[in-house]
Structure formats: structure tokens, C-alpha cells
Amino acid sequence: MRGMKKVILGIFFVLIVSLLAACTESNENAADEEQEERVVAVEAKEAVEKDLVIEKSIYGRTAPNHAAPVMAQAPGEVKEVRVENGEKVKDDNIIIKISTAAGNQNVRSTTDGEVINLLVNKGDMVDPEEPVAMVADLDTVKIEFSVTEQLLSFISEEDKVDVFVEGEEYEAKVTNVGTLPNETGLYSVIATVDNEEREILPGVVADIRIPEKKMESAILVPTSAVVSEENKSFIFIVKDNVATKQEIKVLETESDVTAIEGKVKAGELVVTTGQLTLTDGAEVNVTGGE
């Protein structure tokens, strides 16, 4: 009887030990999994040292660099139309032929260019006070816009400015800067863009970028890397797969780039995605963005 009790106790002891071992192993596995889960996947980019130009967007409109109306000398009926819209013509080319009280008359272009607004058809009556067409120089397009007195100090003739028209970027040259304000208190400015490929149409909106301020040799990071907490700004610097939280001072922001001041060097990796879940000293896995 006593022998049987010993056997039962022995089996019970073995079960208890096995259960404890299993629990310990399970806890160790859970700890390992938890440790793995603490590794945060992030994207990062290098901080750089370069000049930062702060630009101001001003909206204007495109127009032919030069346009001249085609006028009849006398009233009459259109007998023949010699051109079509979009057709290139030379100075003195015949645009239309009309029949007048004094006989037939040729109505000619007074400049080289492209017909952009043909207003008559065969059989129409023409009035010498109204143009029958417009001939324009579209090899160069001018962009007309207005600026405040404050911005005027940043613009000079011959300056090059970036211009965006229908999503495409072009370089324009400032050709005229107004010296007197108009009735709204703004100053008129004209810039020109080469348009030999006819990519820019007249009459469309243009976004002109005026350099308003320049910071030389600034430390720049992606704006997405900056985190704001309690009126303070931080970034996370990655070194040896560890993210260190670093307080910074934001100097200037220009769209997706921010100039900062702090213990950050050019070439250091800063977290741009995933930083909102990070804590100081967290282990990270950089998955992209470099």
C-alpha cells in the first residue's frame, strides 16, 4: 500500500515539474515574441546641409508675347478665307479677301505669328472697326502677375523664376517690373517663357514662385520627420538600429523640407514614417526611405 502511494506521489511530482517547465518555456517564448514585437518598422532619410530658399507662390495668367489684330480697311463681304486657326503666317500674308463698294480688297497680317482667333467665315460681313482675326507670337509666352510692395524688393529684371503651368515646371525670365502701383496697390510684373514646342496655351493660370528668403548652409530634414509635443519639436535619429529622440528648433519650413537647429548632423538618419509609435531608445528596423 505504501509502495503504491509512493508511485502515485512520484507520478504527481513528475506532472507538476513538467507543467512548471511548460509554463516557463511558454513565458520565455512570450517574452521572446514580445521582444520581437518591440522592433518597430520605420522609414528614414538622411539629414542634409544645404541652402534653403523660401518661395512665395503668386498666381498670374499666360498671354501671347505679342499679338496684333487683323483689320479690314472698309466694310464688305468675305469672299475667301485664306487661313485657319493655328496656322503660321508672315507679315503681309493675305488673311481674307472681301468685296467692298470700291471693289475687292485683300486683308493682310501686319506681323509674323500664328492665327489664334479667326472671327469670320465666307459670306460674313466685316466692319473696319472690328478685327477679323488675331495674329500672335506664341514662340514666347508672357506671364502677367502682380506683387505687393514687400515682394517687389525680391524681384528684378533679368531674374529667373520657376513657373508651374498645368502641372509642368518652366523657367521664366522677368522682363518688366512696374514702378508704380495699380488701383489695387499692387505692382505689375511680366516674365517670359520659351514656348517653341507650343506646350503653353495663352489664357491659362500660372503659378510663379518668388524667392522670398534664403538660409545658407542649413541642416535640412524632411518635414514629415518633425514631431510636435507640448510646444516642443523633436525628431528621432537612427543609429545601429536604435532610435534616439532629439529635441530640435524649427527655423523655417518650405513645403516638404524643414530647416532645423539642434544636435543633428548632415548624414544622420532621421525617421520619417513610424515615429509616432516610437519611444526614446526603441529598437527599429529601417525598411525604406533612405
In short:
This protein has helices spanning 2-37, 149-152, and strands at 40-46, 48-70, 76-81, 88-89, 94-100, 103-108, 113-115, 125-126, 133-147, 160-165, 168-177, 187-194, 205-222, 227-229, 232-239, 242-254, 257-262, 269-273, 282-288. With 290 residues, it is mainly beta.
Structural features, described:
The protein is mainly beta and 290 residues long. The protein has three domains: 88 residues, conserved putative lor/sdh protein from methanococcus maripaludis s2 fold, CATH 2.40.420; 84 residues, Elongation Factor Tu (Ef-tu), domain 3 (Beta Barrel); 60 residues, OB fold (Dihydrolipoamide Acetyltransferase, E2P). Helices cover 14% and strands 53% of the residues. The strands form two sheets. The chain has a 15-stranded mixed beta sheet that branches. A hairpin with a 2-residue loop joins strand 15 and strand 16. The longest helix has 36 residues. It is elongated, with a radius of gyration of 37 Å. About 2% of the residues have low confidence.
